[in-house]
Amino acid sequence: xxxxxxxxxxxxxxxxxxxxxxxxxxxxxxxxxxxxxxxxxxxxxxxxxxxxxxxxxxxxxxxxxxxxxxxxxxxxxxxxxxxxxxxxxxxxxxxxxxxxxxxxxxxxxxxxxxxxxxxxxxxxxxxxxxxxxxxxxxxxxxxxxxxxxxxxxxxxxxxxxxxxxxxxxxxxxxxxxxxxxxxxxxxxxxxxxxxxxxxxxxxxxxxxxxxxxxxxxxxxxxxxxxxxxxxxxxxxxxxxxxxxxxxxxxxxxxxxxxxxxxxxxxxxxxxxxxxxxxxxxxxxxxxxxxxxxxxxxxxxxxxxxxxxxxxxxxxxxxxxxxxxxxxxxxxxxxxxxxxxxxxxxxxxxxxxxxxxxxxxxxxxxxxxxxxxxxxxxxxxxxxxxxxxxxxxxxxxxxxxxxxxxxxxxxxxxxxxxxxxx
Amino acid sequence: xxxxxxxxxxxxxxxxxxxxxxxxxxxxxxxxxxxxxxxxxxxxxxxxxxxxxxxxxxxxxxxxxxxxxxxxxxxxxxxxxxxxxxxxxxxxxxxxxxxxxxxxxxxxxxxxxxxxxxxxxxxxxxxxxxxxxxxxxxxxxxxxxxxxxxxxxxxxxxxxxxxxxxxxxxxxxxxxxxxxxxxxxxxxxxxxxxxxxxxxxxxxxxxxxxxxxxxxxxxxxxxxxxxxxxxxxxxxxxxxxxxxxxxxxxxxxxxxxxxxxxxxxxxxxxxxxxxxxxxxxxxxxxxxxxxxxxxxxxxxxxxxxxxxxxxxxxxxxxxxxxxxxxxxxxxxxxxxxxxxxxxxxxxxxxxxxxxxxxxxxxxxxxxxxxxxxxxxxxxxxxxxxxxxxxxxxxxxxxxxxxxxxxxxxxxxxxxxxxxxx
Lengths: 421, 421
What we know:
- Two copies of one chain form a homodimer.
- By secondary structure, chain A is of the alpha+beta class.
- In chain A, 19% of the residues lie in helices and 28% in strands.
- Chain A contains eight helices and 28 strands.
- Chain A has a six-stranded mixed beta sheet with strand order 7-4-6-5-9-8.
- The radius of gyration of chain A is 32 Å and the shape is elongated.
């Protein structure tokens, strides 16, 4: 496993003997690669209006200005009696003030009685404070005998009253453009009676499989052929992180086909190719993109997933992923997800990794950042990597561990950080 | 803020003077409450078949047996030359063996040439090993001169060959019933050519708002009324955790209405009521559920969110949530999410909390577990709680901190665990 130069192509198909099989020469570091990719990723500008019930997980495209106060009226913060505070000032534990109960109001009701000195109105939490009263005496501080309510403790004006607009006050910007709509924020919109909301569109992502050995699902496999895996792993990941994937027909390994397909894909917000960016057929993919725009880098010092390509054509970011399923999917997590989240204007993933001891010693390659898929078993991180071509490496893992480029060995029992899928 | 007995009803509406306003008496602990709820939550049994592209995030309802080998043929693990290993045994750095190049095969192609001693076939990673050859010499260990390929290093049989079925071998159970379909697992299904998959149905959840002061979105607010917030926060949370919410019309605060509505909701997998489970109107909700089945508990020692109700009617779990938006939503995260995930057969949320210092001292109540919404700002957890009725407490927070029942004070700068929303 010392030299991975040539084992990450998924159906390479060397075009010419010798010259087509040069290893990648200008590897850049993971950090540098990600920095370039992120600098080229443009946050989406298109907007759309969606009903509140479909707004979850979407990103606000404009500030939300409150057009009403919430609560829209001063309300009781306790169950008890609405009073004129000054009526209660003489009250004490041994010297209750007796007030006349003139009305009982329930949730959603308004008081009908005229308020005057010496009276009180029974009120439940959340009810509007009857006009003319200015405080609520808690039920615990009273004693009732028919219509006579004895108050044992004074209240000051506005005590136990939630003022109008306490939660949200009219004409303030309560949610800002760029905010992710969480359950709580959906609640703010509901509280304001807002039924539709302007959000950024989800980025449309072109997913382009390539490789002459690849067959779409639904066809039968002739000898030498395998099913298209990457289109499905990538589009699942894209959906998970706020994009709308479109799987293209399998692209042929010819200059003309790459040219035509990439041109068509420029209508999308992001273009992801899989396969065909490794050494064997580098000519076709790299040549096509060089002809149409610019190749920003080709080859990252990461394992697996080295033959990663970054291009820019007419301002569109093109990411070329390795064809081998594990390489493609680890790269998906490592590069595509942060790029897509930036395009979709989603915040960076913030969940922190889980710290667990490694179940066995792992050897890595100096100079290459390694993504190591791991299972979590009995409180240990168990390496699950089989080989770049094995999709089960990822399917049976719970997350991954990153081994930096300057580390060549992680001992058994050493605590590592597991990033969950 | 010492006594919260009465401030968590959302439009209580005390039914009778005095007797209707008893505080909750039989509080149980958070742990006990959650244990009871989880013991009553029944994992869904209904299954359905979905296309692979819609299978993401779903839970497998049966084991997946591989009906083919992956790879379906032995393939080259390197770019190079397929050979008969024994032809290369004499090779050395200064004594190359020269083989005749008889064919070049590209991705997806099969060799046509008859293999015999002394020949080799140029091959790319992923290509099927030509019949009759048994190893691949890496291109780096060779030199080409026209049709003459000089091999400088011997290979042993099967070297640089990935055997048929290496990743997935035919007739093994490769994915198990109950597994969550992640991008990697979707990839396994694709590799096997599987286009449809049997998964558990998503639980259907009845979301029933109540409270006479509550008005559905789209209607105008008359004085004393407020918009329905909880139906939207809860259904967003339900969707986020694998359920299909159905928002019911706002339920009246009468025995007959609760009876009729709960009866209708028994057709769902889980029933969530909001509002009407606090002290003011406990009679109606509790009475109705007692009459129809059993009230398992009413009142949890948690802040906010105390007036939480757990009932069981005809085997259906009924969760009564407080009406106040913050209380309702924190309870949604604390109780509804784990219960729903169990019903949906989703694994427990495993992301670990972020550890940050608290930006200011927080006082809590001994005997009540507190959910404290916090914002993350400049590497600190900043308390964001306003009051139970304020939806902005949750909307402008990034997560929550839990303060156990036996803690009454958390000092400024103390490191707390923030659970992200």
